[in-house]
Specification:
four-stranded antiparallel beta sheet, 30% helix, disordered N terminus
């Protein structure tokens, strides 16, 4: 009986952890993959500062404030509150679960988190992993 209970707990925990593993797409038709909302240990995570999508120096990173996806002036950036074309988050079944933006299109929880990031952009961009562990990991989408 204890084993069954432990197995059920493991399955439940695994489903919670994987529930936050969303792919993020940007661009006019949302065809450009710009990372995942996932654990910072995932190489494709926007929270992995050493990865392609979490580094503030890479082209497709939302943390590169000189790039198309990190500038607060670009239409494909989550930091542009007036963007008509913000990035979307997609689940494993290719369903859009929300917009990654600090603008009006975002769910309230995401919008408030993104506004906080905009206000503290340099600090968060320097270490997105630390920010994820302190704040973003507790956001249930």
């Amino acid at each position: 009986m204890k084993k069954l209970f432990l197995i059920l707990i493991c399955i439940f925990y695994t489903s919670l952890v994987s529930a936050q593993d969303y792919r993020i797409f940007a661009g006019r038709d949302h065809t450009v993959f710009i990372g995942k909302w996932a654990s910072p240990y995932d190489l494709e995570s926007i929270w992995n500062k050493y990865g392609e999508y979490g580094s503030k120096y890479k082209d497709k990173s939302i943390w590169n404030n000189y790039g198309d996806y990190g500038s607060k002036y670009k239409d494909s950036s989550p930091w542009n509150a007036y963007s008509s074309n913000p990035p979307v988050m997609v689940d494993k079944n290719d369903r859009v679960v929300g917009y990654l933006t600090c603008g009006y299109k975002a769910d309230y929880k995401i919008r408030e988190l993104m506004k906080y990031i905009v206000e503290h952009f340099d600090e968060v961009a320097n270490d997105p992993t630390e920010f994820y562990n302190k704040k973003a990991r507790y956001l249930i989408l």
